[in-house]
Amino acid sequence: MKIKKLLTTVLIVFTITSPILYLTEVSSFLLFDGSCGSDVTNTSSKIGNLQDTAYTYTGVDCVVYDYGIVPDDDVTIVVIDQGLSGDGWEYLEDNAVATIEIIGFLTKDENDTLKWITDPTDSYLDDQIYTNHGLMVCSVLASIARDVKIIFIDLDYSNDPYGFELDDYSLWEWIEDYQSTYDIDIISTSCSWHVDFMSQAIEQIWDNLISNGVVMLSSAGNAGNYLNYVYWDPSCYPQYYSQWYCVGSVDHETRENTSHPDIDSDKDSVSSFSSWYENNETGNHIVNWLEPGNGIPVLTLDPPDDFEWEYAWGTSFSTPYLAAIIALIITKYHDGIGSSTDPSVQKVVEILLYASSRGTFHQKQGYGYVDAYLACGKAYTEGVLAS
Amino acid sequence: MMKKQFNFLVILVLLLTVLLIPLTVGSEDIPIIASRISDVTEISIINDIDLNKPNNTLFRINTTVEILNRCSENFTVYENAEYYPKIVIGVSFVNQSLDLEPRIISFDAGTDYTYTPAITTEYESLLFYINQSDLPYLPDGNYTVLRPINTLYPSNAELLPVQFQVSFGVADFTYANFTVLTIPSDETVSSVHYLIFGLLFSFLIVLTRRASKFHEVKNEN
User: Fold this and answer.
1) What pLDDT sits at residue A36?
2) Could you tell me if B90 and B163 are in contact, meaning their C-beta atoms sit under 8 angstroms apart?
3) Are A231 and B109 within 8 A, CB to CB?
4) Which of A128, A219, A336, A348 could be A380's S-S partner, Cβ–Cβ 3.0 to 4.6 Å?
5) Exposed, middle or buried: residue A222 (CB in 10 Å: 0-12, 13-18, 19+)?
């Protein structure tokens, strides 16, 4: 009789637990709000009014939505990325949620001639094959630095018919030549390269740009390891150069049971995929800062021709996030000083450090994330003091 | 005596359950997704004024890549970035002062790719520098080229490289083949799993009822 009772108990437990186990299994495929890959609901509130936790975490909602601060006309960001379609360009300039102003698209044609395009309907743009990453990166800028001026520089990627190589001197020469004309203040790129491409000539241009107040930002990379190794080789350029500031990803909320179990997020931690670097010999602190990059709203193109906001992940998005905050910082500095005189790179870094979540450097976290509200207040004060 | 036999049978059934379940899920150990370099179509030296670096020779290797989805349904893999190209190269040079530097760029956004069942063929071309100028051909050494896949999740992809040994400019290639082309779908594995559970528990119920009846008859006697 004891055995019968035991077996009955086992059967009952099995009967009860089976559906629970099944449901648990199924739930792992459900996308929770904020999960990577899921659509952003109520975009007008979450992105338009910056109420998504990806924004409230750093206080950009307070700066942009509550106080209505937008970059002024004397701030321009250069985005170096794989491409941008004409449709994406038009949508970024004209949608109901968050917009930017793209003043030009620079590429290098098949004959190695520079091509400057200012019209999104230019049919030359149609030949690009890879454009979605550029769209996503620009949309992060649009969500935070409203209507900021953008120059898009097109990289040659895969079997795209045209574009620059990252080590092309003419790319950097063009930026230097037109830095003053277009008020270029920030360069943001979300790619990692295996090749140590810095030549003395390119290094000289970078130094000149820094002297002119241009802040250069690059993504930390997503290999989630030291030096961003991809099999046998580190993929750490331009991050490793001391002229560049490197941006990793911080988890702005805790999420579990997403469709990507390896990138579950743990609030306030550096994201599991965010790579890091350290060079004690040169005292070069990289990663420098973290910004939200695990479950951040981006604009994507879902064929056929349907733009939508969804949550994405990657240090690709942490980088324009910080670029957008720096655009706001420079604007507030302009307000404080009462002119379009830009702060030096050193001054911008000083402001960022003042508003960083960490007071000390950490190998994986740098100085943490930047409180946008604190940073903008500090920038205004610094501007007033400099006036 | 009967009670002892019954207890023995219960233990036997439980043991069988414990032993058989791992066998039914064992097929999951074979990665669903796999990649292999099926052909190296060309290795050449490139002279491009935009790409050349001082004191280096630039090479290009063209490959044919196969991605195998062993499942009967589409399978999505998660990569931690968009890579170009999607192959990597490793080398052990005879001359250890040499170094190889591939031209690989990644855009740092998490990216999903979906593969249809069976084999998908891709063509990948990789440029790489070797830090010696005017090399007439690939330096002596053992080279490995593979196509990483599923760099994020699940990470148990099978990567079959091509390995080649170069000696005085002559390369000897060794290609790996996929050993298992298909595996049962999750549904099939689950069905077998549940079937075994069902059979074993049915068997236990029958045994229980028989034992009860035997005890009842025994008590009546």
Assistant:
1) 72
2) no
3) no
4) A336
5) buried
CA distance B51 to B128: 10
Closest C-alpha among A232, A201, A202, A196 to residue A216: A202
Does B104 contact A at CB distance below 8 Å?
Answer: yes
Phi first, then psi: what are they for A216, rounded to 5°?
-110, 125
Q: Of how many residues is chain A composed?
A: 387
Q: Please tell me the distance from the alpha carbon of residue A15 to that of residue A9, in angstroms, as a whole number.
A: 10
pLDDT in tens, A15-41: 555 555 544 444 333 444 566 778 899
CB contact under 8 A, B108 and A316: yes
- The token pair that represents A126 in the structure block: 């149609």
Structure tokens at B197: 């559970």
Hey, is A259 helix, strand or coil? coil
Residue B192: both structure tokens together: 């077998």
Tokens of A319: 């980088």
DSSP 3-state assignment of B153? Answer: strand
User: Which residues have C-beta within 8 Å of that of residue B76, sequence separation ≥ 6?
Assistant: B112, B113, B114, B115
Collapsed DSSP state (helix, strand, coil) of residue B120: strand
Average of pLDDT values for A300-312? 85
> What is the length of chain B?
221
Judge: A263–B110 Cβ closer than 8 Å, yes or no: yes
pLDDT (tens digit per residue) in A198-248:
899 999 999 999 999 999 999 999 998 888 888 888 888 999 898 999 999
Task: Calculate ∠ Cα B78-B84-B89, nearest 5°.
Answer: 95
Higher pLDDT, A318 or B51: A318
What does the block give as tokens for A256? 């579990």
Q: Is A190 in Cβ contact with B109 (below 8 Å)?
A: yes
CA dist., res. B51 & res. A156, Å (int): 12
How would you write A124-174 as a 3-class SS string? HHHHCCCCHHHHHHHHHHHHHCCCCEEEEEEECCCCCCCCECCCCHHHHHH
**Count of alpha carbons within 13 angstroms of residue B214, beta-carbon side:** 14
Rounded CA separation A273/A248 (Å)? 9
Helices B186-220 and A2-27 pack at an angle, to 10 degrees, of: 160
ipTM attached to this prediction: 0.86
- The residue behind tokens 């990252």 is A166
Q: Is the dihedral of CA B65, B70, B74, B78 positive or negative?
A: negative
Q: How is chain A split among helix, strand and coil, in percent rounded to 5?
A: 35, 20, 40
